[in-house]
C-alpha cells in the first residue's frame, strides 16, 4: 500500500497536478482501501491547523503587504542607495542589504522579489549592470527572506516539529547574516567584470545630490520596526503572533499620521494576505494527513534506517540530507516540501543528535535555494516576469551565484552554534 501511495503521488506531481491534489488523492485512496473512517482525514487536517503559532503567519504576511502597498519599500531602497552610493557597484551591494532589511518585514523570498524586484533591477541597470545579471542577483539575494525573522517557513516548521516558534525564528538570524556576508564578498569580486561604465545621467545626478539625512528621515519609521519586532520577542514582551499584530497596528497608525492611510490599500493588502495564507494553509492541512498516512506505513522509520545504513557519520548523513532536500526543492514548492519532509527527517536528525531547530534552518535554506532551480523554480520565474527577462538568460547569470549560496548552506549545516546560539540564550 505504501508503494501505491508513493507512486500515485509522484505520477500526479510529475503530471502537473496541483500539489494538494497530488497529496490528497493518494491519501483518500488509502482511507478507502484501509477502511478508515472518512472523518479521520477531516480531523487530521483540523488538528494540523488548530495551532496558535500559525496565527503569526498571516499577520507577518499582512505586515509585508502593507509596507509594500504603502510604498515604504521604495523608501528603504532609496535609503540604502544613498548610504552606499560611493562604493563601486553599489547598487548590487545595496540589493543584498535591502533584501536583509525587507526580509524582516515579509519573511518570504517571493515577496522580496515582488516588492523590490523592479526597483532593484532598474537601479542596477542604470549603474551599468546588464538587466539579466540584475534579475539573477535579485533572485539570489531574496533567499535571505525565508531565513531572517519573521520567517514564515520557520514558523511552519516550528508547528510541524512541535518546538518553540520563537526559538525557530531567532535561529534564523545569524545564518541570514552569514548568507549576506558570503554574498557580499562574492558580489564585490564579481563587480569587477559585471559592471560596465555606462551610468545614466539620472544615476550620476542621484549619486551627487541626494541627502543621507533626508533619506534616513523617510525610512526611519520602517527601519525602527525590524529591531523592535525582534527585541519585543526576545525580551518576552510579545509572542510572535502578538508581535505581528502590533507591527500591523503600528504601520496603520504611522501611515495615518503621515496622511497616506487608505482603506483601499488596507482592503487590497488583506485580500492579498488572504489569498497567500489560504494557499499555505490548504497545503499544510492536506500534507499533514499525507504524512500521517506515511507514518502509519512506517515510512519515516524506513528513511531513517536507509540514511543510517548508507553512512555512519553525522557529517555524511547531513550531506545526504542536503542533497535530498535540494533535489526535492527543485520539484516542489517550499511549504509543501517542508510539510512532508519534516516528520520524515526528524527521526534521522534525532538519531545523529542534530537539534530539531538546526534541522529546520537547514531544511528551509535548502528548499529556498531550490526555488531558484528549474524545472519548478518559483523564484527564478517570478524574477524573470518582474524583470521582463527570459528565464533562460536569468538562469545563465544565476549559475555562478549558486556558489555563495551553497557555501552559506555548508556553513549553516556544519557550524551548529551559528543556528543555536540565540535560541540557547532565550
Notable characteristics:
426 residues, mainly alpha, 24 helices, globular
Provide a short characterization of the protein structure:
With 426 residues, this protein is mostly helical. It is built from 24 helices and no strands.
Q: Are there runs of 5+ residues with pLDDT below 50, and where?
A: none
Largest sheet: none
Specify the helix fraction band. over 70%
Written as H for each helix and E for each strand, in order along the chain, the element string is HHHHHHHHHHHHHHHHHHHHHHHH
Cα separation of the termini? 44 Å
The number of domains: 1
The shape, in one word, is: globular
Count every helix, treating DSSP H or I runs of 4 or more residues as helices: 24
Number of strands: 0
Using only C-alpha atoms, the radius of gyration works out to 22 Å
- The mean pLDDT is 82
Computed structural class:
mainly alpha
Give the strand content.
under 5%
Main location: membrane
Transmembrane segments: 46-71, 92-111, 154-187, 219-238, 273-295, 315-345, 357-381, 401-422
Protein name: TRAP transporter large permease
Subcellular location: Cell inner membrane
Question: Your description of this structure?
Answer:
The protein is an all-alpha fold and 426 residues long. The chain has one domain (37-425). The protein has 24 helices and no strands. It has helices spanning 2-14, 19-34, 39-49, 56-69, 72-83, 90-106, 109-127, 131-141, 152-161, 165-171, 173-194, 201-209, 212-223, 225-234, 240-257, 263-296, 299-310, 314-331, 334-351, 356-370, 378-387, 391-398, 402-414, 416-425. α19 runs antiparallel to α20 (356-370). The radius of gyration is 22 Å and the shape is globular.
Amino acid at each position: 500500500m505504501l508503494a501505491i501511495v508513493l507512486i500515485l503521488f509522484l505520477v500526479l506531481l510529475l503530471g502537473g497536478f496541483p500539489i494538494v491534489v497530488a497529496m490528497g488523492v493518494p491519501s483518500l485512496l488509502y482511507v478507502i482501501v484501509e477502511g478508515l473512517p472518512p472523518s479521520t482525514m477531516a480531523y487530521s487536517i483540523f488538528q494540523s491547523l488548530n495551532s496558535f503559532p500559525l496565527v503569526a503567519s498571516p499577520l507577518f504576511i499582512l505586515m509585508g503587504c502593507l509596507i509594500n502597498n504603502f510604498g515604504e519599500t521604495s523608501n528603504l531602497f532609496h535609503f540604502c542607495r544613498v548610504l552606499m552610493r560611493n562604493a563601486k557597484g553599489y547598487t548590487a551591494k545595496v540589493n543584498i542589504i535591502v533584501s536583509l532589511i525587507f526580509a524582516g518585514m515579509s519573511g518570504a523570498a517571493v515577496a522580496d522579489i515582488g516588492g523590490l524586484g523592479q526597483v532593484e533591477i532598474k537601479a542596477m541597470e542604470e549603474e551599468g549592470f546588464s538587466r539579466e545579471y540584475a534579475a539573477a542577483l535579485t533572485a539570489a539575494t531574496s533567499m535571505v527572506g525565508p531565513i531572517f525573522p519573521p520567517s514564515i517557513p520557520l514558523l511552519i516548521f516550528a508547528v510541524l516539529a512541535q518546538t518553540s516558534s520563537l526559538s525557530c525564528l531567532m535561529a534564523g538570524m545569524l545564518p541570514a547574516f552569514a548568507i549576506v556576508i558570503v554574498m557580499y564578498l562574492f558580489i564585490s569580486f564579481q563587480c569587477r567584470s559585471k559592471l560596465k561604465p555606462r551610468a545614466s545621467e539620472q544615476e550620476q545626478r542621484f549619486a551627487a545630490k541626494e541627502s543621507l539625512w533626508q533619506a534616513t528621515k523617510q525610512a526611519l519609521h520602517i527601519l525602527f520596526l525590524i529591531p523592535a519586532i525582534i527585541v519585543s520577542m526576545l525580551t518576552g514582551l510579545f509572542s510572535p503572533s502578538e508581535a505581528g499584530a502590533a507591527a500591523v497596528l503600528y504601520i496603520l497608525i504611522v501611515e495615518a499620521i503621515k496622511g497616506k492611510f487608505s482603506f483601499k490599500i488596507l482592503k487590497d493588502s488583506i485580500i492579498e494576505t488572504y489569498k497567500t495564507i489560504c494557499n499555505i494553509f490548504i497545503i499544510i492541512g492536506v500534507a499533514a494527513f499525507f504524512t500521517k498516512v506515511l507514518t502509519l506505513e512506517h515510512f519515516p522509520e524506513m528513511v531513517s534506517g536507509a540514511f543510517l545504513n548508507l553512512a555512519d557519520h553525522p557529517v555524511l548523513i547531513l550531506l545526504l540530507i542536503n542533497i535530498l532536500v535540494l533535489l526535492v526543492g527543485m520539484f516542489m514548492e517550499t511549504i509543501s516540501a517542508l510539510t512532508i519532509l519534516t516528520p520524515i527527517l526528524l527521526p534521522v536528525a534525532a538519531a545523529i543528535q542534530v537539534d530539531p531547530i538546526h534541522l529546520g534552518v537547514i531544511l528551509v535554506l535548502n528548499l529556498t535555494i531550490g526555488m531558484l532551480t528549474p524545472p519548478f523554480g518559483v523564484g527564478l520565474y517570478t524574477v524573470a516576469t518582474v524583470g521582463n527577462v527570459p528565464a533562460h538568460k536569468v538562469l545563465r547569470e544565476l549559475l555562478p551565484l549558486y556558489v555563495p549560496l551553497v557555501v552559506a548552506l555548508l556553513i549553516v549545516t556544519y557550524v551548529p552554534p551559528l543556528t543555536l546560539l540565540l535560541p540557547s540564550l532565550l
